[in-house]
Design a protein that fits this description.
Radius of gyration: 18 Å
Order of helices and strands: HHEHEHEEHHEEE
Number of helices: 6
Distance between the termini: 67 Å
Strand content: 15-25%
Helix content: 40-55%
Strand order of the largest sheet: 3-2-1-4-5-7-6
Structural class: alpha/beta
Shape: elongated
CATH architecture: 3-Layer(aba) Sandwich
CATH class: Alpha Beta
Length: 174
């Protein structure tokens, strides 16, 4: 009898977690206009770490940071000022939990980065679909200072500055 009660409680908790995940996914997709939460794989993350070397005094922002794994990777490189923005609540929650468990000092905000002034950052990292990236050209042109580096994983910004291509990354310099 006790096992049935434990199984029912476990099923109920699991159902609640799945419902929260699905609800946050749907809300995130609507709010982000169809951009899903997809993390870089460990292989992709190793490629970023191998090919992108930042300085400790860089001010880095990850647009759509997901679970903040890129921020933590840059933190291991010695970068001190790391910020991420995420609008998928599930991904944001994962980022906060993982940052706490791994004692990361990177800051993650549950906020739409389109409403954030990016002028204070000199390194922008993003893993966003090309149609979403293309919608950011005007924002980048308006807010980013000369010398700012934009690292876009997997997708290029069409008809914009000529990027340097490193493996599957497009590196733009303003």
């Amino acid at each position: 009898m006790i096992w049935i009660i434990i199984a029912l409680i476990f099923s109920f908790v699991l159902t609640i977690i799945v419902l929260i995940y699905l609800l946050s996914l749907i809300i995130g997709l609507i709010w982000a206009r169809g951009v899903p939460f997809v993390s870089l794989s460990k292989k992709q993350l190793r490629a970023v770490d191998k090919n992108i070397k930042l300085k400790p005094d860089d001010k880095v922002v990850d647009l759509g940071c997901g679970d903040a794994r890129v921020l933590r990777m840059f933190e291991k490189q010695g970068v001190k000022d790391l910020t991420g923005y995420e609008i998928n609540f599930w991904a944001y929650l994962l980022a906060k939990i993982k940052n706490k468990l791994l004692k990361s000092k990177s800051k993650v905000y549950f906020k739409n980065f389109k409403k954030v002034d990016l002028s204070e950052y000199n390194v922008i990292f993003c893993y966003l679909l090309d149609y979403y990236l293309n919608s950011l050209k005007e924002k980048f042109d308006k807010e980013l200072k000369p010398g700012t580096k934009i690292i876009s994983h997997s997708f290029s910004i069409k008809n914009w500055h000529k990027p340097e291509k490193i493996e599957r990354m497009f590196v733009y310099r303003i």
